[in-house]
Amino acid sequence: MKKRQFLKFRLLLPVIGILGGLFCTVGCGTSQNTVETGNLIRSDAPKHNSDYITVGFIQTGKESDWRDANTNDYWDTFTTENGYNLIYVDGNSDSNRQVKAAYDLIAQKVDYLIIDPIVEDGWDDVLTLAQQENIPVIISDRGVNANPSLYECWIGSDFKTEGINAAKWLYSYLEKNGREKENLNIVILEGTAGASAAIGRTEGLLEEISKHSNWNILTSQCANFTQGEGTNVMKQILTDYPHEDIDVVISENDNMMFGAMKAMEQAGMRYGVDTDVITISFDALYEAFELMQEGKLMVSVECNPLIAGLSHQVIQDLEAGKTVDSVYYVEESVFTYENAAEYISDRKY
Ligand code: GYE
């Protein structure tokens, strides 16, 4: 539990040009409230206006549909109507760029920083500086490998539990079909190396998989959470291994699975319900529900990107001098080809 001791009066935003190269056009907008810098930086509120809470939001990039839903959720929540000036930075899937953006936003003296870190490591120095400069930081979605006293809180999903749930679903499915004693070869498509979402899911999966001596990991490879890499990595796997050896494909997000499905189709493979390949992924996107309804995807472990409301609540609590928790987990479920039809109309992303 932490309490915010500062921020009773808002700091006037200094000259935005301080941001130099990367941010050179932020604040150079017309009388309208939108500024775009090659889609990398956007801010919708009037600048130099202390009536707004200025929030610097550093996103990972645009690697997946989950990410787009998360970005849009921040835009929809951190509006001028809600009292915010949101400065959005697209990390462009480059963690150095993210760290540099954090330094720049600190120099700009934003009121809050929200960071969706691409990878866990490399944040200590900039978080230490943010604390010295009295800029509270919220870590959103993926975690950081840094002392929790350096930031207000982390809001996101329990990635390890998601991995465990995926493997537990596999066991229950096999058991239901009298197949739990069968030898199984599993292919895993991993998310970005060093990203806590990938680390946690892999850890959960491996922990459960190791409990079954008849389950074998044929190969586990990184496809960076993107659909394109999902296709390419799967294509290579299908070149390297006999197709009939593959019993299960687990992808650490839906988009990589969509890509892998394309590769399997191109290779003439069938997958999903009533085939020899069990398909499992994470996120539970709308498109995943459609594929589950078709029986092509068998399960998607939900990961909820709609977490901006919690970040907003945390900031409001800090503004009111209230204490906030250090961790906020988002509620999530597991959806399958059997229940997708029941839930698809409620999906928001
Ligand atoms: O699963 C994936 C995205 O960090 C939880 O990142 C997030 C993951 C999500 O690109 O689709």
Describe this structure in words.
The chain is α/β, with parallel strands linked by helices and 349 residues long. The protein folds into 2 domains: 2-157 and 305-331, Rossmann fold; 159-303, Response regulator (Rossmann fold, 3-Layer(aba) Sandwich), CATH 3.40.50.2300. The chain contains 10 helices and 16 strands. It has helices at residues 65-77, 95-107, 124-132, 159-176, 196-209, 227-240, 254-266, 286-293, 308-319, 340-343; strands at residues 2-3, 35-37, 41-43, 53-59, 84-90, 112-115, 137-140, 153-156, 184-190, 215-222, 248-251, 278-283, 299-302, 323-324, 327-329, 334-336. The protein has an 8-stranded mixed sheet, with helices on both faces. The chain has a 6-stranded mixed sheet with strand order 10-9-11-12-13-16, sandwiched between helices. A two-stranded antiparallel sheet has the order 1-14. Strand 12, helix 8 (286-293) and strand 13 (299-302) form a beta-alpha-beta unit. Helix 4 (159-176) packs parallel to helix 5 and helix 6 crosses helix 7 (254-266). The longest helix has 18 residues, at 159-176. Bound molecules: beta-D-fucofuranose.
